[in-house]
Amino acid sequence: MKVQKKMLGITLIVMLALSVAACGSNGQPPTFEITRQAVDISTPQQTSYAAQYQKSVFLGDSITEGLSYHDVLKQENVLAGAGKTAEFALQDVDELVKRKPEHIFIQLGSDDILWPTDNPKEYSLSYYSQLIDGIKVRLPEASITILSVTPVTAEAEKAEPRYRNIRDYNKGLKELASKVQVGYVDVSSIVADHPDMYDADGIHFQAEFYPILLDYVKNELGRQKSAK
């Protein structure tokens, strides 16, 4: 009887392990990973990015969350989650204020354009504007930069035709950035230059994409500053 119980216990453990592995097999964080504790960043490359962006916070959805999920930045420098929209991000302002960032990068929109309303772009940008206004009031000394929504693959666009609106949505983001006087960086070009870095769903990205993203953002901000 004891042997049977022991074998049953081993079987349950194996089944649990296989289940956990399957949940993470698509390269995106399983639900329980979203609230995991911060991971120590120890490689030279990761340490470099952690230092460069130690006074920054990236606010966004699951694409932005890849920065911390893939351990490119520390958890305290990323405030993001799956399904996040500009409307939902309003709830993150209190937490953002607690972190006292000097620079805030906002990358929202991938979920906004899928929102079931008559005009998702107009609906989203109205909340995007409210979000920025709220941050400016609470963190008046912080600089804010909007990052464009990353394009998806042709296959992903075919599966979800609303992704065809990404380019138009980004145009709206650029106009909004100019209107509310915050920075704007279009990251579309780096996605076009590295199509092999898409994850299996053609929407999210593999770990190798994020250092390239951070380098591009840093260089673009430097270029914009020099041009002034």
From TrEMBL:
Which PROSITE patterns does its entry note? PROKAR_LIPOPROTEIN
Residues of the SGNH hydrolase-type esterase domain: 58-210
Tell me the keywords, alphabetical order.
Signal
Signal sequence interval, chain numbering = 1-27
- What is the protein's name according to its record? Lysophospholipase
Tell me the classification of the organism that encodes this protein: Bacteria, Bacillati, Bacillota, Bacilli, Bacillales
